[in-house]
From TrEMBL:
It comes from Pelomonas aquatica. This is FecR protein domain-containing protein. Residues 574-584 have a biased composition (Pro residues). The lineage of its organism: Bacteria, Pseudomonadati, Pseudomonadota, Betaproteobacteria, Burkholderiales. Residues 259-360 form the FecR protein domain. Residues 68-101, 564-590 are annotated as: Disordered. It holds the Pfam family FecR. It comes from the Bacteria.
Amino acid sequence: MSCSGCASCARGCRRRWLASEGLHEQGLADLEQQPGRHGRGRGGQQLQQLAQAAVFQPLPAVVPQQAGVGADNAQQVQRQQPEGDEAQHHQAEAGQRLAAQPAGKARNCWHHALLNSMGHSPAIARMGAPKRAREAAMCGLRVWLAVMLFAGGGALRAEPDGADIDWRYRIAAGDTLITLTEAWLAPPHGWRELQKLNRVPDPLRLKPGSTLRMPVAWLKREAAVAEAVFVKGDVRRQRNAAGGADEALATGATLQSGDRIRTGAQASASLRFADGSRLLVPPDSEVTLEQLLVLGRDAIPAVRLNLNQGGADNRVVPNAQHAPLYELRTPHVNLGVRGTEFRVQAAGAQSRMQVLSGAVHADGLGPNVAGGQGLLAEGKARSVALLLPAPDLASLPRTAERLPLRLGWAASPAGAVAWRAQLYARGDFERLLLDARVAEPVAAWPEARELPDGDYTLRLRAIDARGQEGAAADADIHLQARPEPPFIQAPAEGAVSYSGGMALAWTRNTAAPGVRLQVARDAGFKDLALQPSPIAAAGYEARLPDGVYHWRIAAVEANGHAGPFGDPQRFELKPPPPAPPPAEPEVSGDQLKLRWRADEGVVRYELEWARTAAFDGADVQRFATDKPEVALPKPSPGQYFLRARAFNAAGAPSPWGQAQMIEQPYPRWIWLLPLVLLPLL
C-alpha cells in the first residue's frame, strides 16, 4: 500500500521541522525575504546552510515491522541502498510521500517510503512507534529539503560568486576522484558530486590527459594579498575600507582584503595580485580591495574590486587551465573578467569601460563586451560602441629639451574631442608618472621638472563625444633638459646695432659655469656665423658684418657635458648713418653758420666745437639740431676744430665725421698795431 500525498500533510511536515529548528512559518518567510549580496535572499543562504547540514548527515535506514521479521533476521531482508541519480530519485519520491502523510498508521507512508528507498536498520526496528515516526519524519524532511534546494528551489538557492565558472583540471597518472576531492574541494562538496558533474563511470579509474571540471565555487579558499609594486606621489591606504588606519602607501607594501587605495593629483599606484594580474590606479581615484582569495591547490585567484571614483587599468593574466575570477564593481555596473585587459572610469552618474583585449561581461548586458569596444553604463542603461582608433604620432618630436615639458601631436583621429596623455617610464606601463586630459592636441606638465633626464614613453588615447577613451598610440621620448640654459640679459629681442657688433650678456648657471654660444644667419642654425669655444664669462662681444642674426646659448658642465640650447633671440647689425659732409662756414654778422647735406634716415645731428683736434679739452662745446644746419655764436679770433655726427630714429649714432679746422681771423687793425708802437720805442 502506498500513499498519494497531500498538501496539508506537507505543510504539517514543514511546521514540525521548523519547530525542531526553533523557527515558525512567519519567521521562515521573513528569513527568506532578507536581502543579501547580488540580490539573493540572505535568509535563503542561511536556509541553504541549514538544509545542507540536514542533508549531508547520515540517513538512518529503517526496517519493516512485519510479522515474522525481527532484529535477528534483519540482515536477510536488508537490500543494497541505491546510489547516484537513482538514489536521488528515490529520495525525492520518499520525501514527497513522507511529507504527504500523517504519522500513526500501522503501515504508514513514512515507514513504507523509507523501506522502499533506503533499506532496513535493526536500530530503527528496536525503536518505539512514536520515536520511529519522528526519526522518519526528520529523515524525510531532509530529503525534501535536498530536493527543494538542488532541484530548483530558487528561494533557498544562494550561489557564491563564480558559481557558474568551472576550472578544468588535467588528469595526471594516479589521480582518483577521491584524492582530487581531498586536495581541491571544500566541504560539503564530495567526490560523488564531482562524479555526477563529469559523468565519470569509475571514480577510481581516470584517464590521464583528459580534463575534469571543477566549479570554482566548490574549491578550497584561502586569504591572499596584493603587493604595491610601484607608488608615486600622494597615495593613501586605509585598512579595512572604513574605520581603519589611514597611512601613506609605499612601494613594496602588502595589501589585503578590505583595504582602500586613494591617489592624489599626479599620484598613481600599481598593484600585483597572486597570479601576476596587475591593477594600475591612476591619479584622483579610489579603489577598494573587497576580496583577495586563492582557490584550490593551484591558488586560482579570486579578486573583487570596487571602483568608487576615478579610474582603474586592469591586466588580468589568462591561463589555459584556470578560470580567473576577477570582478570589478562601480556604482553603476558590475564587470566579470576571465583573462583580459581593460580600463574603467567612474565619474558622476556614469561608468565607462574600454576592452583592449579579451572580453568582459557586464551585468544587465547579454553578450560580452569584446576587444575594441566600449561600454557606457548610466543607471540601468547599457550601451556598447566601437572605440576610436589610435592617434597619429608621426609629427611628435622624439627629443624634449624644454622644461616644463610640452608635447604636441596632430589632431587625430576623426571624432576626437579630447585626448588622454600619459607619460610612463620607458616601456613600463606600471610606472605611471604623469597624466593629463587635454582638449587640444598638446600636453604640458609643469610637474615634469621633477623627472630626471632619460627615456620615457608617451601613451596617447583619443576621447570621443561619449567620453570613451580609444586605442592607445605609444611613442618613446628622450628627455634632455639639463643643465638648463642661462637666462639672456641683453640685448632685447630684435635689437639693432650700428657699431658693427653686438654685446651679448647672460646669467651664470652655478651648476654649469661654461656657456656654449651659437650665432647663425638663419633661424634653423644651419648657417653658423659664430661658434666660439665654451665661454667662462657672462658675456661676449659679437663682431660681425651687417645683417640679421639669430643666437642661442647652452650651459656646459665642468665635465664638458652641454645641456640643450635655450630659446633663440634675434638681433640686427646695420651700418651707421653717414657723418655730415664737410661744409664751409659762413660768417654773418655776429654768427657763424654751418650747413651740410641731409641724409635719409637721419633725424638729428650733434656737433662738437673745440680748440684742439683731439676734442679732449675742457673747452669742448656740444650743439644739437634736427636740421642739417646750425648757427653758432661768432667765436673770438683763433683756430678751432669742428666735427658732427648723425642719429637715426632708433637713436643710433653714426661715427663722428672728419674734424674740420676753422680759423677766425683777427681784425685788420691789429696788424697795424706794431707800426703805431714803433716810434715809441
